[in-house]
Amino acid sequence: MISVLVEVEKNIKNVVVNKITKNQETNQRKLNINGGKMNKKQIILRSSLGSVFSAFDNPELIELSEEDSRIVAISGRINNPGIYEIPEGTTLREAIELAGGIMNKKDFKAAQFGIPFGGFFTKEQLDAPINFNDFHKGQTRNLVILSEDDCIVQFSKFYIEFLLGKIAKGEYREYLPAKYEIDRINRILDRISKGKATMRDVYLLRYLSDIVKSIVKQDHNLILEVIDNFYHEIEEHIEEHRCYTGECPQLVKFRITSKCIGCTACARACPVHCISGKVKEKHEIDISKCTHCGQCVAACPVGAINEGDNTLKFLRDLATPNKIVVTQMAPAVRVALGEAFGFEAGTNIEKKINEALRMLGVDYVFDTAWAADLTIMEEATEFQERLEKYFKGDDNVKLPILTSCCPSWVKFIEQSYPDMLDVPSSVKSPMSIFSTVVKDIWAKEKGYARNQITAVAIMPCLAKKYEAARDEFSRGDNYDTDYVITTRELIKILKETEIDVANLEGEEFDNPLGEYSGAGIIFGRTGGVIEAATRTAVEMLTGNRVDQIEFDVLRGWDGFRSAEVQVTEDVTLKIGIAHGLEEAAKMLDKIRAGEEFYHAIEIMACKGGCIGGGGQPKAMKKKEVLEKRAEGLNNIDRSLEIRRSHENPQVLAIYEKYLDYPMSRKAHELLHTKYFPKIKG
Ligand code: SF4
Ligand code: SF4
Ligand code: SF4
């Protein structure tokens, strides 16, 4: 078979076209993408879940398609995405084979021809020859292959958002008269993906899609064809709030798949003992007790636990025109991600990650550590207020104050200690604070609507996926954090897209949400949140600047440790620190029984804190690696001029301009939350 393969050289300004003939003679020519002005942006974005062309609308790719009537860009769940010549009479099955076959030998689900005009083909059409008349003239010919692992709702959403992005850019003008209907279709698909739709919405989808089909005189309408072919999958999203693929972030639940070999490692790692099963048999999770900590995922040797993977969603968002993709990165990510690229654990590679994210197409690269400083401003003020009342003899004041930035721990207390929900600090986590500020303050300042922004959090943590999906952190159907990418998921993308992370020069964060203090960065290790809060609280309580801000008594590796910090001659604070939920339970039991008293407690669900999160790279010598990651964060802290949250000029500026002062009414509205007794999967 004669084939033309366009190999995309990663990380370069042009594309090499290799014409491979029957006798393997090679005829090369250059295809300059955007006239050679691609900067360092990637053309094919990949993860181990699939691929997306980021240059769908590139004029030269279109030109190439027009030059040769049988050239098609193939992407999706196939092993070798690229641009191929499809000879006359080639069937869909043969085209898939030409592109390396479907990933992980999964079953074919559907294929979409051309975005957004083409057809939508299912299994029945696998052996029919590809009809080139299905591709629309003047557009790149695309073939997107879906496997059984693809969520049909997420794919439909991508398709519609892509179309809307094109219309917003002034392209596909024939769709303009149907824009009202397409906008409504988009909102309905969004509701379905979040488990917020009713079956009436399926009727509306049909109704609106019929109108679009008639206005634009389409031969094929993807949404109508999706409803006809995958009605039950849509119904499952609506009626059962279930996305079997784990691609819909708001519907994700931990699930053990058929890959399970019954080794019991997950059951032994689970801090709340909610996994059961016999040796060598498939295990099950009692989701009503699960805290989403992810320790089971980290322990499973065969990757049998599906925790919801957002890498393909991220790549699709990056490829969608007119979407503004904003990332934040948690402190613990930067000292662990490098392990996958040959760096010693604990090496801070934040600048290289920033550059790599921009190469993928992220529009703004910000830092969660900035929001950690804002968290501390609120948490330390709340602590100060409670302490002042306590020292005045107010019996109603709730102490200890418990830090609340770990969603796994928050879910644990909501499920198991519903009588103690007034003790955690009401301050949102740095991730949620960051996303609120981005969507409610920064976006407005930039002139963007809230729903134009896709806020992606790069986290060491699987429980953050659950936190992002909590309704408290949303406005209507728009969630503050759209979804979370874990450190391991980002590694998969960077490796598959072949970004040479080790050799990147590195770039700074975008500002103003990129500058952080040393206090903001140590959040990532056990004892770090309470140490950061103590740095600010002690200075607030005494009114004096303290020279010694490294509180060694708060550091260490014991699962449950307590320390005393002398603030003044008369005031000594008793502080507790727990990492691991079993240790936290012991501490809470003693407090509830009145056997122990603390002024403040930090609890993190993972051993070592977020540096040991369930989304971090797996480590063989775990303790050693965790110590190095923790030291990496301490080194960043020591290297910074500003090491106290209340001295971060960008944090002070946001109070001056928008929030007035810590714990103000405006700050409460945006930066605080409430906890509820709940049994939730
Ligand atoms: S996520 Fe955590 S709590 Fe849930 S099953 Fe896994 S180990 Fe247990
Ligand atoms: S660790 Fe993985 S393979 Fe072992 S029992 Fe748990 S899910 Fe099954
Ligand atoms: S300790 Fe950190 S990584 Fe672990 S669950 Fe809590 S927030 Fe997530």
From TrEMBL:
Gene Ontology molecular function: ferredoxin hydrogenase activity; iron ion binding; iron-sulfur cluster binding
Stored InterPro entries: 4Fe4S_Fe-S-bd (IPR017896), 4Fe4S_Fe_S_CS (IPR017900), Cytosolic_Fe-S_CAF (IPR050340), Fe_hydrogenase (IPR009016), Fe_hydrogenase_lsu_C (IPR004108), Fe_hydrogenase_ssu (IPR003149), Fe_hydrogenase_ssu_sf (IPR036991), Fe_hydrogenase_subset (IPR013352)
Residue ranges of every copy of the 4Fe-4S ferredoxin-type domain listed in the record: 250-280, 281-310
Protein name per its UniProtKB record: [FeFe] hydrogenase, group A
SUPFAM superfamilies registered for this protein in UniProt: 4Fe-4S ferredoxins, Fe-only hydrogenase, Nqo1 middle domain-like, Nqo1C-terminal domain-like
One Pfam family of this chain: Fer4_7
Annotated organism of origin: Cetobacterium ceti
UniProt cross-references to SMART domains, sorted A to Z: Fe_hyd_SSU
Swiss-Prot/TrEMBL keywords: Iron, Iron-sulfur, Metal-binding
